[in-house]
Every structure is written in structure tokens, then in C-alpha cells.
Amino acid sequence: MYKIKESRLRNAIVTGVMVVVAGYLSYETYRLSVKEESIGPIEVKNFDMQIPPVTYGDNFFGVSFPDKDNGWVVGSYGTVIHTQDGGQNWLRQNSHTREPLIAVTFVDPQNGWAVGKAGIIVHTADGGKTWEAQDSTTKHLLSGVRFVDSKQGWAVGEWGTILHTSDGGQHWVAQETGNDVILNGLFFLDASNGWVVGEKGTVLKTSDGGATWVSKSHNIHVEITEHVRGTPLTIKDLSIFTACFLTPAEGWVAGIDGVMFHTMDGGESWDVVPKASKRSLFDMVVRDGHGWAVGTEGTYITSDDGGKMWKQPDPSPVPTTYWMYRADFVTPQLGYVVGAHGTIFRTEDAGQSWKQLGNPMGS
User: Fold this and answer.
1) For 362, which DSSP code?
2) Theoretical Cys-Cys bridge with 291: which of 62, 229, 307, 314, CB 3.0 to 4.6 Å?
3) Is 38 in a helix, a strand, or coil?
4) 3-class secondary-structure state, position 118
5) Per-domain residue ranges of the chain
6) CB neighbours of 240 closer than 8 A, spacing ≥ 6?
7) Per-residue pLDDT tens over the stretch 161-180
């Protein structure tokens, strides 16, 4: 049985936490960081709190590595940093926005997009040398972005927002779902098959590139013991933060309090995955028989059987108690995790050990 500790109010708080922490630093920190010419390549093993923009106070919300050398991390105050050597050195890039950037995706070392607060979408076609704003057609916070190639992409966010582009972001068009919930994450296998997850147990599926979205959360049945004012909690009381699919049939969704569900038939039915942690899970990756998930308070869980069973290593090989927001694996061996207070970790052995690539105080 699941015993959910957070109330409906806590669900909303956890859902919005990245936006809150993104705004708690002073404007002065941002002002110091906007001069791109003031910093050169950053030796990440020697992060200095006085070298903008990467400081103890920066929160990193998104990471994308299209290959083993090139990677981007985004976060507070429009921060974008780029590495060309697998994380050994980082250079700040000018995103031309002060808004927190919550997610980033690159389809190759040249073409990438980042999204964030106030509907911001910025795009680069030259590896981040220049970033330009795109018209998202919304002012709602955008919390997730995914492209399957240089043309086809989607972004999701508040008030049930799902945006789609078929021309690399020159034009973004809203896709209607009939839901006004906060959408936290998305996953697309190709230009047709995709999933979106969010608060109130939202799990939406498309098989036609988002022309139509179908709810699959009603097929999730889980017995929850906690009651609120005498009413039993249901799937609609849960926030789902992340989704990962291997095929249109097999995939996982996970979220608040460590809940995780697995489907083998495209969401027609779901199995409850035994909890490996009681803390919320923000992101997960499953590939080549391995699985990794990260979340609040340094939560890190793994799977060695293709996602059927998960465990929390003790002690954790990720030496932090800070919230970890995103993970990206270039290969089954090589992966990265980013989070609060300048946290960046890298693994070269499929998550058996992790090396910190950020501020030494971020642990």
C-alpha cells in the first residue's frame, strides 16, 4: 500500500517548487552574471562562488547532452552553461533572458531549445553561440520541452499548456487537452508517440503528434490509505512529474512521494512499482536494462532489471542532500545529474559512482 504523506496542498507546493527556488536569489547576482565576456572557461572542479554565473546559489533545472562531449545546463536567471569536453570546462552563454529556465533539449550539438517562466522559449542553431527568443504565444510557465528532430517539438506547462511546432519553433501552436492542470513533464519517442504528465494524476497520451490527447490516468488503480477530511485519496490526488518510455507500449511514470507506475500496453493497464523511496521523484531514465531516478533531498534510486524493481543504494553514490531535478544519460555508462546550488554530477560507470562537477559546497 502507498501511504501518501503530502496533502493536496503539498502536491501544489512540490509542483511549483522549482519556480520558487529559482526566484529567491537577489537580482544583484543576476546582474553580475550577464556579462558574458567577463568569464572564460570554468574549471568545474574549482568552481568559485565569486565567479558568475555559476555559484553556490545557482539552481540548475535542466540538462541535455546530445553527445559525449557537448552538453548544456540551464537554471536560475536565464543561466545557460555549455561544455565541449564532457564537463571538464564550462562556458556561460548569453540566453538574453532573466527568467528562470526550467528545461532544455538538444537534438544535435547545434540545435537546442530552452523553456521557462513567463512562457519563455529560447533557441540556438549554432551550439549556443547565439540564443534567440521564440514566440511561445503564452505567458504561462513552461516546465518541459522535447524535440524529436530539428523541426518537430513540444513544450508543456501551467494551465494545461501543450505547445507544438513543426518548423523548429518559428511558429508554436497550442494543442488542446481540456485540462487546466499544471503539466510537469513530457516524453516523445518520435513525431507521433508522446506522453505528458502533471498534477492531479494527469497522464496523457498521443499517437498522432498531439492532434489528439487521451487520458490514461483512469487506468491507474492504487490503494492509498490516507484520508483527507474523511475522503480517501485517489490517483487524482497525486502529482506526476516524469515519464519515460522505451516503446509505444512500455513505459513508466513517477512523481510525488516516490510513486511509480509501469505499463506494458500503452497505458491501458498499469502496475504499481514497489517504492524504493518515499521522497518525490522529478526525473527518470530507463535504457538498455538499467534505470535511474532522482528527486528531493538528494534522492537517487536505480534499477538493474529494466525498471521492474528499484532500489535506493545505501550509502548513496551521489553525495548530496540537495534536490536533484534532471538526469540525462548519453550512453548506459555515461550520465549527468543537475540540481540545486550549482549541483552537477557525472557518472562513467552506469551510476555506480558519481563525480561532482559543481561547487564543492554543493554536497
Assistant:
1) -
2) 307
3) helix
4) helix
5) 8-356
6) 184, 185, 197, 198, 199, 201, 202, 203, 217, 253, 254, 255, 256, 259
7) 999 999 999 999 999 888 88
**CB-based contact 143:156 (threshold 8 Å):** yes
Whether residue 144 contacts residue 184, with contact meaning beta carbons closer than 8 Å, is answered with: yes
Q: In this predicted model, what pLDDT tens digit does every residue of 273-320 receive, in sequence order?
A: 999 999 999 999 999 999 999 999 999 999 999 999 999 999 999 988
Query: Whole-angstrom Cα distance, residue 21 to residue 40?
Result: 27
Residue 176 has a pLDDT of 87
Residues 132, 134, 139: CA angle, nearest 5 degrees? 125
Amino acid at 338: V
Beta-carbon contacts of 24 under 8 Å, excluding residues fewer than 6 positions away, are none
User: Which grid coordinates are listed for 115?
Assistant: 523553456
Query: pTM, whole model, 2 decimals?
Result: 0.83
Among residues 239, 149, 243, which one has the least CA distance to residue 187? 243
Q: Which CATH architecture has domain 8-356?
A: 7 Propeller (2.130)
Q: What is the pLDDT of residue 222?
A: 63
- Asked whether 130 and 78 are in contact (CB, 8 A), the reply is no
CA distance from start to end of the chain: 33
Contact assessment for residue 36 and residue 92, using Cβ atoms and an 8 Å cutoff: yes
C-alpha distance from residue 214 to each of 158, 178, 188, 196 (Å) = 18, 10, 15, 10
CB 243 within 8 A of CB 256: no
